[in-house]
Design brief:
The protein is α+β, with helices and mostly antiparallel strands. Helices cover 28% and strands 16% of the residues. The protein is built from six helices and six strands; from the N terminus they run αβαββαβββααα. The longest helix is centred in the C-terminal third of the chain and has 13 residues.
């Protein structure tokens, strides 16, 4: 039998009388570094329901579900599908999404892996198609400032949030007319109204 070397014997004695290298998890959770990409949370007040996070998510851990009958958009985050790449955090225009240092996602109920928030939808008053959420248009109008007055949809949305106008959606396939300028319209219907006024289409 080969006798151990002096160095190996010294390491064995040091490890025998020193603390173990492993952590005491789960009795005591370790604290990750500040830039650790843990569980993602999003601020319901800051979120505008634009869907940018859905577009950039490579794992399809985010979804938009529009309830057309109730006029509500559900912004869904599926924790069990997330790969914590941070794309949604980077590209969120309102900085509503952020990483936490929490890494424990042990749940007994599958529904706890699903987070969602609700936002009010706005529909085109002419064709009835979804434009976007109310908060999204209000955010665009605030960012543009006085330039928002070039777009009637932004102006009407901003004014309705200030309770200065009353929105009365009247959907239908009637021919576009000049008065349709002062209605909430999707880009396709807005184009028809402008072309009809200019060229008489």
């Amino acid at each position: 039998m080969k006798w151990p070397k002096i160095r190996e014997l010294g390491e064995a004695l040091r490890s025998l009388f020193s603390a173990p290298y492993t952590t005491k998890f789960p009795k005591r959770a370790i604290l990750p570094p500040p830039r650790f990409r843990g569980v993602i949370v999003f601020d319901e007040e800051k979120c505008i329901g634009c869907g940018a996070c859905v577009e950039v998510c490579p794992a399809r851990a985010r979804e938009l579900e529009d309830d057309l009958e109730k006029g509500i958009r559900h912004v869904v985050y599926l924790k069990d599908m997330c790969i914590f790449c941070g794309q949604c955090v980077t590209y969120c225009p309102t900085e509503a999404i952020r990483h936490t240092v929490d890494y424990d996602m042990t749940y007994l109920d599958k529904d706890q892996y699903r987070d969602e928030i609700e936002k009010e939808l706005l529909f085109c008053e002419r064709c009835g198609r979804v434009i976007t959420t109310r908060e999204h248009l209000e955010w665009i109008a605030r960012r543009l400032g006085e330039l928002a007055y070039a777009n009637p949809t932004l102006v009407l949305t901003r004014q309705s949030s200030l309770d200065t106008v009353e929105m009365k959606p009247e959907r239908g396939d009637a021919e576009p007319y000049r008065s349709d300028h002062q209605r909430l319209l999707c880009p396709a219907c807005r184009r028809e109204v402008i072309l009809n006024e200019i060229w008489g289409y």
